[in-house]
Write the structure tokens for this entry.
Amino acid sequence: MILETKQIEDAAFYHVVNDIGFEATFSDFGAGIYALSWCGKPLTAGPKDPVTYLHHSAYYGKTIGRIAGRIGKGQLSFEGKTYALTTNEGQNTLHGGVRGFSYQHFEGETKEDENGMRILFTLHSPDGDQGFPGNVTVVVTYFIPKEEARLRISYHVESDRDTPISLTCHTYFNLGGEKTIEGHALKINAPEVLTYDADLIPDHYVSVPDYLDFRKEKVLGPILSLPALSVRGTTGIDHAFHRPEAKGEFVTLENGELSMHLHTSYDDVVVYTTNYPPFGLPLVNGRTLCLHGSVAIEPQYESLDFPRMTVRPNKPQENFIEYSFSVNRKHNHD
């Protein structure tokens, strides 16, 4: 395997190439994925300029924490107490607040053995960080096997007191670098979807409506233009899908040439189809940012289920997200 490192501003980038041409580049700023590709074919979409990647507000490929998603009015009600969090989306807290994990430097380390390469990123988050309780240590490990087009992300979290943690990876996918993902087909093994209030704060789960029922694979283009998905002057998917048990393959994304298969220990996945401007940003896959140019797929805990996501002293939280890629025959869009 090949490992190259370089420094850009005050961030370290790690570029890994395995024996079958699967490539991944990571950054210690936000413990993030800068780019994935396989045999020269881009798999992800993010800013082409690494400096832009570091500072962009769209969370491209970054580790999201302490809690993925939105918390209304920046008020965390947990175990009988209310904690005032930093707010970064109007009066609400989004993806961990003003300086969530995606805006913090992790300590990077590399380990290689006969099985493949591991990139470990460690962060010590003090009590009161962005308003959240507890001194927390997070280790994000990216593992690339020697001879597979596969990336496994492992999350290990420790805390000195009870505290809720729901981490995810905010990677945007576009298989093969197509202009948009409207020709991609999506499958999600989930019978329920989350509803939201007017401020996009999670409300409750309902049975997935027919137009969002991806248990049978659907091509995205016709779905994205449906009037039912028209919100705030744009169209697209921005929903959390829920499954009752975290077993088996959760999500499949494919185009005519490549497939991505997602397995995870989480029971929710948020899908966001790049619905909002500003557009025109040059991307690492050779395209420019446009409406529906990529799809973010973000596994995480069931929304606001604080008891389930609580880390307790002497009981670390362990989760994983795994993407595997394959070459497939041309998808039939008929």
User: Anything to note?
Assistant: The mean pLDDT is 95. The first strand starts at residue 2 and ends at 8. The chain has one domain: 2-327.
